[in-house]
Amino acid sequence: MATEKKDWHELISQPVYDKMKTMKDVSIPMRDGVRLAGDVYLPDTPGKFPALLAYEPFGKKHEEMALRFPPQSRPSHLWDGNLESGDTPYLISRGYAHVIVDVRGTGESDGEFTNLMGGGREVHDVVEWIAQQPWCDGNVGMIGISFLANMQVFGAIEQPPHLKAIFPEGGHYDAYETAFQGGIMWLMPRAAVEGRGGDSAMPVRKKFSVMKNTLSKEEFERRIQERLNDPDMKNYPNYHQILRYPEMNLMWLDFLLNPYDGPFWWGSDAPKDFSRIKIPAHYGAQWGRGWVTDGTIARFLEAKGPKRLILRPPPPMQERPFHQFHDEIIRWYDHWLRGKDTGVMDGPPIKMFVQGIREWPLARTKWTKFYLRSRHRLLPEPEPFDTESVPPDGFYQAPLFVTNKVQSLTYSTPAFAEDTEITGPIGLYLYSVIDTDDTNWIVRVFDVDPQGNKIQITTGWLKASQNEIDEAKSKPWAPHHPHRRSIPVKPGEMNVYAIKIYAMSNVFKRGHCMELEIRSQEDPFDPLLGLLPPDAFHLNSARATFHKIYRDKSHPSHLFLPIIP
């Protein structure tokens, strides 16, 4: 495959072309007759070039800002999370064509945009069209982060013959988990769709509801009424209005009417088969957005072709317009599209911010239980006394439409006597009694220095009524909830809540401690939520609930932690 080997820094350090030419509003035919619109950027010189496709839903005309607008970091109000297609001048200078295509039903493309998990067939057809163009040498890769990373993976599942490699970074590969984390609705996808809190909107050409078009009138109205009966929905004004006036926001209506995982979120009758990805794939994510990190690790493990995984340091959101690690992207594609041995496959298959590894979880992990104890301690030794001697902790949380106070419980380790690495997925097991039929469990883990300064490391969510476990798919460090139905909690009944806390990698320095925080609401004024994108809160519980957390000999609430010796 490779014909020459040079230092890869030398291979990418010298621009090859300094001028580019553009073909605007190119019409690209799909197999069903729909035509998509694309812009093609090429080196301004005769010849054929490998091409990198960015298949995006935010408007190729909007992506033109990347040609003139300097990158912005969060929390700048000019940061726009949807400028994700890549640095066109850089790619052109390295001898690649950059093809930016509007997703079906958005921007200038025809058709209907119906589902966040669709797009694979269109990617197949666009890739094959690109490969036949006189300016392309027949080798096609893909580029782009977040939603555009999804499109790379979904396209690779369809196995277009001329798609030779992909480089997905920061993708949201599980649509249900993107919208309902732990069964609790996340508001951020609406921000991305409608343009809230700094994100630009998706320019969807025709508003469309899958539910309205596929359900009978009776079933459609029944589902709306069922959601209106949910206290969380009927006490959130935005969603109450959408359910009362379904025509006003058809796309988000579909989200509201599908609170459980299933075909709507899969984009088909069955979940996607990521093992169909057999081409070279370079997966990446940044610590700090756990659902992205966990999903990226899962897709890497399922892929069958040559593959690499990198887990980058926080913060979890890149600058926009997206321009980072393009040298790595060129190194990857020079190897797989041009046949240059850039050394990209040397070394361990997984690289991460802490150190290189070859497996996940790490084989040398010392799985350790840290027990919730009296006086808000978190210790490796279990409680020796029963409930009579150590009664439960508790907190009462009123709905946020009657209070601004968010209550919580915290448990902390003693100061670590030496630097302690914790790397991997985490399980939290809470023995608890609540006095309503549902609540939210919202969990955060912090690194706290001797002065009391906190850094949020990872998070976990679980809706109490969706505590059902799939034992066959669960591990002690990764409880798996299918989220296919709600089972109301019996008030006053003891339950063990198995909460998946997203994978983390952190070295707690000597003298630091780890703090576990448990609450049922998110505080919109909490400065620590700065790790998350704009409008990135979850739908808060509308139930006034008292939460008792037991941590005695018979009810050993604990964290299951991946300590690295």
General description of the model:
Helix content is 21%, strand content 27%. It is built from 15 helices and 23 strands. The strands form 6 sheets. Strands 13, 14, 15, 17, 20, 22 and 23 form a 7-stranded antiparallel sheet that branches. The protein is globular, with a radius of gyration of 25 Å.
The share of residues in extended strands comes to 25-35%
Percent helix range: 10-25%
What would you report as the Rg, rounded to the nearest angstrom? 25 Å
Low-confidence spans: 1-13
The number of strands is 23
Secondary structure category? alpha+beta
Distance between the termini: 40 Å
Mean pLDDT: 91
What general form does the structure show?
Answer: globular
Count of DSSP helices?
15
Largest sheet: 7 strands, antiparallel
Secondary-structure map with pairings?
Blueprint: E1 4-5, H1 8-13, E2 20-29, E3 35-43, E4 49-56, H2 60-63, H3 88-93, E5 97-102, H4 120-131, E6 136-142, H5 147-157, H6 175-179, E7 180-181, E8 184-185, H7 188-194, H8 210-214, H9 217-228, H10 231-234, H11 237-244, H12 250-256, H13 263-266, E9 281-286, H14 290-302, E10 307-312, H15 326-338, E11 340-341, E12 350-352, E13 366-373, E14 377-379, E15 393-397, E16 408-412, E17 420-434, E18 440-448, E19 454-463, E20 495-508, E21 513-519, E22 545-550, E23 558-564
Parallel strand pairs: 1-11, 4-5, 4-6, 9-10, 10-12
Antiparallel strand pairs: 2-3, 3-5, 7-8, 13-14, 13-23, 15-22, 16-21, 17-20, 17-22, 17-23, 18-19, 18-21
Helix pairs in contact: 4-5
